[in-house]
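Supplementary notes (optional reading)

For those who missed the lab, this is the record we used. Protein: Branched-chain amino acid ABC transporter permease. Length: 323 residues.
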Amino acid sequence: MIQWAGLAVFLLAIFIAVPAFVVASGRSDLYYTLTSVALLSIASAGVWLTFYIGRINIGQGAFALIGAYVSAILVTKAGMSFWLSLPLAGLFAAAVAIVIGVPILRLRGVYFAMISLVLTQVVTLTALALPITNGAKGITSIPLPGGISIFGLTLIPDFATLENPRLAFYYAACVLMVLTFAAMYRLVNSRLGHLCRSMQQNEELASSIGVNISYIRVIVFSISSFLGGIGGAMFGSIAQSVYPSSFQVADSVNFMLNCFLGGLGYVFGPMLGTLVLYFGWDLLFELGRFQLLAYSSLLIILMLFLPNGLLSLRLPGKKGADR
């Protein structure tokens, strides 16, 4: 009952209270900031999933960039609706993850981390080299998402006709975020989630009782990359442009830090971690050249005193990803 009440408060806050606050403050630029937080938390949720199978993923930026380019190409060159290109971008990223995941997911620890770290740079160099991505020029002038109507009933309005498309993007990002974390919660409490937990503890033991660990690793990695792909596709649509530098290695590292800060033992850890890191960096802007020093020092202190993440403050004694 308490969980449902908390969910209701959360939904009221993001869909009603936050827009009302933005209107009252006159800070319409906050829509873009909060939209970015929602989308980054989706990509970070994918990274959290790979931690769930005992893999340190520092390559989510690669799949976000893939998703951004696939959606941009389908919209600008094929004339496809953005809403159709969005899942296709995620599926393409997932397909790439399956191809490269079969060999690299055999690695563990720092070895997998280093390989995944290289992925973002590989995708960036590929985007620079391929003619379809326009090289360093990138893809610009991406149209805003069009409307969706069924039997004359408008389900999603044409963003180009709206007075404030930033608000529309905010709502779209929040809906995607809610659906993502609802699916994540369901996944970790499913049979697949229980198998992932067993693999996280001891892969050899899980394999000895009949768990197909290779298959599960690839499935989870593909789901993780799917989330990165749709997050990147949404970013490309908001910016109306995609460049090889749209997602860099630093972004992949931040996706990982979001999970650590929020809490690896909690499904909603990536969401809280993204919110704190994003606004924390901006709040430290006034420190000028000492911004990075203060930012890094605070992260180290938090990791030392809160090794289980910020959510461990609210949920003492409740360990486990299903909390």
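If you only remember one thing from this example: Residues 315-322 have pLDDT under 50 and may be disordered.
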